[in-house]
Specification:
By secondary structure, the protein is an alpha/beta fold. About 30% of the residues lie in helices and about 25% in strands.
Length: about 220
Amino acid sequence: MTVMTRETRETRVRIVLRTGAETAAARAGTGAAETSAGAGAEGTAPETSAGAGAEGTAPETDVAVPRIDTTVPFLDHMLVTLSRYGGMHLEVDAAGDLRHHLIEDVAITLGLALRRETPAACARYGSATVPMDEALVHTALDLGGRFYYEGPVPSGLYDHFLRSFAEKAAMTLHVRVLRGRDRHHVVEAAVKAVGLSLRQALTPGGAVFSTKGGVQIIGEENS
């Protein structure tokens, strides 16, 4: 489990992240179903009550259910989605002055936490294609320690989120929007595809798929 805190003059973000077999065991049998919520991809129309689990449910006590409160309802929804599709336990507590700063700092902190949680011996690569109504998005990623991002998604805020997340996770991430008209659907399909790709890439393995060996990350909590 990794606990990561980032503080600036504008924002404060605290993230708890756990991946791997322990989380998979904790999630087994929960059968928690995701519900779709109606908001624009910039978070202008709240689709849930913030702080109540981002899907309008009662406060969660089950360790398998994400606990997210960023004060931005659509960001809460996307983080819950990423956690569930990625097979991760995620807690996020964040607040700040401007939505842009908040979304960026959550992405940075989450990327650093994922970098800490990525085992040296894992599948490393993952890819997925996700349809959501008229939208179709494909993602492919590599957790091998080199940053590269290729997008975009049709939202400046959430394209920047994905780029910052990939950079701080030292991840190569390709996002291809194959089709789609509704910006919400495209962004959500992209986040789901990233989550499914991460689930594959984080699968424990018996080998380090790099000629350089494993990568160690030290002392970046407040980067």
